[in-house]
Amino acid sequence: MNHNNIVHDKIYTLKNFLPLMTIGTLIILFTITKQIIYGFDVLSAMYDFMGSFFIIFSIFKIINLHGFVQAYSNYDIIAMRSIYYAYIYPFIEFVLGVLYLIRFQLTLANYITLVLMTVNSIGVGYKLAHREQIICACLGTVFKVPMTYVTLAEDIIMGTMALIMLFK
After folding, report:
1. What distance in Å separates the CA atoms of residue 61 and residue 140, rounded to the nearest whole number?
2. Of 111, 119, 127, 135, which residue is 20 to 30 A from 69 by alpha carbon distance?
3. What span, in angstroms and rounded, lies between the C-alpha atoms of 2 and 110?
4. CB burial of residue 52 (10 Å; 0-12, 13-18, 19+)
5. Calpha distance 139→131 (Å, rounded)
6. Alpha-carbon span 121 to 98, nearest angstrom
7. H or E element: which one contains 57?
8. Are residues 145 and 132 in contact, defined by beta-carbon separation less than 8 angstroms?
9. pLDDT by residue (tens digit) across 53-77?
């Protein structure tokens, strides 16, 4: 395990989550603004939210791709077995983001998102259940955000949104 990706301080403060909260707020504001301009539609809002989420989060992962791969390989059940998967994962997220924003191949995007978020949830859930203190790779390694139940909630929410969109 890479010791740079271990969280030594078990006490989390608001400061630990400030980057995540800021980016999340910006994504929500983008989604709301677009809905105000073009008219509110729940499905459209979910596409915009997921598209902007995936693009922004993937960019932070790509900024330090090697650092992301090291951090992600600590908890993703596929990335633990395939470094190649860890390297392409941010690009998969980026493409999913584009597909959601341009409303292209949405069924495929939703299936892929559901699988990815389910796999992520399994790995995150396992680490949380075993009380391992590691850095979450959700924003790459640009910010040292600790892995908590917030990480698990993100994955479950995104997977649930993809599932809802598959049945709409």
Report:
1. 4
2. 111
3. 33
4. buried
5. 21
6. 23
7. helix 42-63
8. no
9. 999 999 999 999 999 999 999 999 9
The pLDDT assigned to 7 comes to 47
Alpha-carbon Rg for the chain, nearest whole angstrom, is 16
13: tokens are: 């403060």
Contact 62, 140 (CB under 8 A): yes
What b-and-e string marks burial along 90-118, b requiring 16 or more CB atoms within 10 Å of the CB? beebbbbbebbbeeeebeebbebbbebbe
> In 1-26, which positions are buried (b, 16+ CB within 10 angstroms) versus exposed (e)?
eeeebebeeeeeeeebbebbeebbee
Two structure tokens written together for 140: 């790459």
Tell how far CA 114 is from the center of its chain: 12
